[in-house]
Hints:
Layout: E1 4-9, E2 15-21, E3 30-35, H1 45-55, E4 59-64, H2 81-98, E5 104-108, H3 110-118, E6 127-131, H4 148-154, E7 156-161, E8 164-169, H5 170-177, H6 182-186, E9 191-196, H7 205-214, E10 219-223, H8 234-248, E11 266-269, E12 277-281, E13 284-288, H9 303-326, E14 332-343, E15 356-367, H10 372-382, H11 386-392
Parallel strand pairs: 3-4, 3-5, 5-6, 6-9, 9-10
Antiparallel strand pairs: 1-2, 2-4, 7-8, 11-12, 12-13, 14-15
Helix pairs in contact: 1-8, 2-3
Amino acid sequence: MKNQKVTFKNSRGEMLSGLLEMPVNQLPYAYAILAHCFTCTKNLAAECSISRALTMKGIAVLRFDFTGLGSSERTLGNTSFSSNVDHLVQAGRFLSEQYSAPSLLVGHSLGGAAVLSAAHELPSVKAVATIGAPYAPEHISHLLKGKQEEMELKGVAEVSIGGQAFSVKKQFLEDIQQQNLEPKIERLGRALLILHSPQDRTVSIENAARLYQVARHPKSYISLDGADHLLSDREDALYAGEMIASWASRYLDNPKKEALKVEKEVAVRLGEQAYTTDVMVRQHSLTADEPESLGGNDFGPSPYDLVSAGLGACTAMTLQMYARRKKWPLHEVRVHLEHYKDHAKDSENMEDPKSKIDYFDRVIELEGPLSEEQRLRLLEIANKCPVHRTLHSPIQINSSLK
């Protein structure tokens, strides 16, 4: 399905800009809202990776920029913790009116504290996940050290956070100092997942411990060992997203597989970044990529690797199917493959690159007390597996634009 740029208004009538990311080939079974970290945007690499992991599991994700960030002007003058909570509530109402009510909230850093508060105003929410969240919003006031006096005198101060300059009003500091999340955490009434890195130097691990102690069951904790606060390593962000998606499926209304509406049996989606590609085969998800040497991230098999895997899987299935029908003692099949391009052995134009053909070297291991005659017959059968025959046959690919 197609990702959609969306806009909606907060309670002040200000327009917020967001992106609704959809599963590749099916209607989502649930909707989530992702709240970004303090002074970040919806396009932070970590937020994109987490969103991608969720959509690959069939969950649509709305991520948007809080007032003063991302698509808005670079100022925090009109934002506060309370306004961020309001934005999340309005985002939930927008989804309810235009798509479907959100059942999952995910928040990163201060966004994690915000989703804990916003959940109380969104009755459709069944699960909440926080990443590197502070136990109390006031925790971030240390980022404004040395600027409090200027705020008192002028009502606003210029601060540098993450190497970027922001104007922060006195009301922002006053607002976070007045927040007390403990009662809301204790009465959350939803499943809670806390993800935190023991090495987080921005929001210490003690915050996760306090969150867990105050929250009631069902509650879970996952250590993001080795990760930094912003999940700068994409593998850390993908891991966090995959853990959230797996955990959330226990608490969200996930329909039976046969009830999912799939546009095509196989769907593939690739955006503007590198070559990491989302692949959905019915309800099964996987990732395709290119090696780093070719400009990829090597987060998954290459397209030719997938072709080889298809040939190997078909070979193994065909041999077992044949052996079972014959009642032969074939206990296990292992197929090893390698794909490469080289000149045909009888090629007359060895210097012409166009004369190269595709080779698949296939080595088959057969485990079991088979006779030599049976082993040779199974080798013949391997060459008759459907994918093998497809690769040897003329094929036609019909392409069209949608």
